[in-house]
Amino acid sequence: MKKSLSLLSLSMLLMLGCQPQTNTQGNTTASDTVSTVSQPATSTTPSRQEQQRQAEVMAKDTLNAVQEEVVKKTSNASFETFFQNFMNIIQRQDAAGFNQLIDAQRGLYTIETTGTMPNFYHIKDISKHRLSNFNKPFFSIREEIKSCNLKEVKTLPKVNCQGDSDMYTQKGCFVADGSEFQEARIHQFASLPEAENERIDKTLPLISKSVLHTGSGYKFYFGQVNGQWKVLFINLMAPCSA
C-alpha cells in the first residue's frame, strides 16, 4: 500500500512539473509593454517665451542690417560729393581750397619717383609743392585727369606691364576701399626716417577710399578725420615705372 501511494505522489509531481508556463510569460510581456508605453515623450516645440525671444533677435538683426546699409549709402553719397569738389578744386588750381582738404595735423603725402624707388613728400601747403619728376606745379596734374566719373568696385583694376598698349584691363575711374594700399606698405622702400615711418603707419588705417584714374595711373587715398573727408595720400608714380 505504501508503495502505491509513493508511486501516485511521484506521478502527480511529474504532471505538475510538465504544466506550460504560458500565463507567466504572458504576464511578463504585458508588464514590459506597459512599462515602455508609460515613458513620457520629449517635446521639441519651443515654449512661447523662447519663440518670442527668437522673434526679437531676428527683428534686431534685420534692423541692424538695414541701418548698416543706410549708413553705407549715406557715406558713399557723402564721399562722391566730396570727391567731385576735390576734382573741381584741382581743375580751378585753387590752392587755398585744396589746403582745406588736407588734415592740419597729419598733412598729405604725395608719392613720386625720379627712378625706380618711391619718394614720399609730406605736404601741408600744396602751393609750395612742385612735382619732382617734371619740376612743375602740383596742379599741372589736372591736364591728365580732366574727368573722373566714379565706379565702385571691390578691388581696383590691376596693371599689366607686359603689354605695349593699355596697361589696365578696365578703363575709367574706380573707387574701392583702402585695404590694398594699406597692405602694400610701400613707404618701407622709401628709406624714410623712423619718425616719418611711424607717422605714415598711424595715417594708413584712416584710409577708407581709394580712387584709380586709369588714364593717368594716378591713385588718390582718402579717409575721414573727425567726421570730415580728407585727402591723405596721392600716388603720382607712373605705372610700371618700378
Keywords:
7-stranded mixed beta sheet, single chain, 6 helices, disordered N terminus, 242 residues, Lipoprotein, signal, alpha/beta
Oligomer: single chain
Structural class, by secondary structure, is alpha/beta
Task: Determine the mean pLDDT.
Answer: 80
As residue ranges, the low-confidence spans are 1-11, 13-38, 66-74
Query: How many H/I helices?
Result: 6
Computed CA radius of gyration, to the nearest angstrom: 41 Å
Helix content: 40-55%
**What form results from the Cα inertia axes?**
elongated
Q: Major β-sheet, in short?
A: 7 strands, mixed
Give the strand content. 15-25%
Q: Kindly report the spatial arrangement of strands forming the biggest sheet.
A: 2-1-7-6-5-4-3
Number of strands: 7
The arrangement of helices and strands along the chain is HHHHEEEEHHEEE
User: Gap between N and C termini, in Å?
Assistant: 132 Å
How would you characterize this protein structure?
This protein has a domain at about 70-235. The chain has helices at about 1-15, 20-35, 50-90, 95-100, 180-185, 195-205; strands at about 110, 120-125, 150, 175, 205-215, 220-225, 230-235. The protein has about 240 residues and is α/β, with parallel strands linked by helices. Helix content is about 40%, strand content about 15%. Strands 2-1-7-6-5-4-3 form a seven-stranded mixed β-sheet. Mean pLDDT is about 80; it is low at about 1-10, about 15-40 and about 65-75. The longest helix is centred in the N-terminal third of the chain and has 45 residues, at about 50-90. The chain starts with a helix and ends in a 7-residue tail after the last strand. This is Lipoprotein. Keywords: Signal.
